[in-house]
Automatic annotation (TrEMBL):
Keywords of the record: Germination, Lipoprotein, Membrane, Palmitate, Signal
Protein name, per record: Ger(X)C family spore germination protein
Organism: Salicibibacter kimchii
Membrane topology term: Lipid-anchor
Spore germination protein N-terminal domain sequence ranges: 49-183
Amino-acid biosynthesis listed as a keyword: no
Keyword ATP-binding annotated: no
Amino acid sequence: MPSDSKLRATCFIPCSFPFSIPLLDVSPFVQKDQQDAILRSPKYRMDTRQEGAGVSAAHNYETSVPTIHEAFRKLVRESPRRAYIGHIATFIISEDLAEEGLTDVLDFLYRDHEVRSDFYIVISKDERAGDILQLLPPIEDVTSININNAIENGEKSYAEVQGIRIDSLFEKIIADGIEPAILGISTIGDLNAGKTMQNTEQIKPEAYLQLGPMAMFRDNQLIDWLNEEESKAFNYLEDTFDYNVGSLPCPDDGTMAVESYRIARNVTVHLENEQPSIDLEVDIDATVSEINCSDLDVLEEKSYQIIEEANNQKVERMLDRVIQKTKENQSDILGLGREVYRQHPRYWENVKGEWPEIFTDMDVALP
């Protein structure tokens, strides 16, 4: 790390009241400072729920030291409690730091014996990571719990949202033939107003958090972002969601909604003259959940054939777009290289060092 680098740790610690019930919630973040020196900032948030109104659920403490581990320990100079990192709920990495790479940021998490493997990693998009956790959500008392619940519910109902836990991220970082994709998070509205208690007291909050899209990585560095439709397509191909709803235009006028509830992916790798190609078959089960079409008679079977064809065409366009984007960025977040290794291990051993270039030129068909 450069000599001018510094680390700032920010910790939310509860007020001490005799009637308080401690609920620990440790939420680190890492980001860069305004002088572009590397700033890796664990943010540890511990929440104590209080009776009565007008009491903040958490407080913010900061310290600057050269390493993440020392930052955790040094916080005891300012806070009455020692942060237990086994209670990490969400780890937020700023976009600019992710562009420099994840290796240094995650090194401490690899090594520390207290770190558990069940928390989410997210990337702050267009915002400082610290600002994300300072926004007061209108429903949940604690921002990191708000993020966790939003990810878990989003994974079950909307394909753009797919979190990655630290153990899965480690696996993709060290594995050959696959690159990680990490969920982004940003704020909507007036961020400064969102940091006040008034944000939690209004029917329509001044600011709130928004999940998505997905960040693409290559060699552990953030290189691009998928858009909403591309993020959905990526998670289709990952088969990592329970349900998704998409809208389709009617043949003549109006719109309809189709809910996908099961998807299966089958990858076949062909090898001819030492040149790989892939057939990527995707089978989706879906149901019509809403129809506002004056030109479709839902009692006729042909109407459902029309809907099925329209949905298939839309999904195929989405899948093709995300495949092309991964190839353009030489970022194999779909894990096609891993499929090459599984089906043709000897060939893979010979070409794995050149895989990004081979992947870019490889034919990927959606039969």
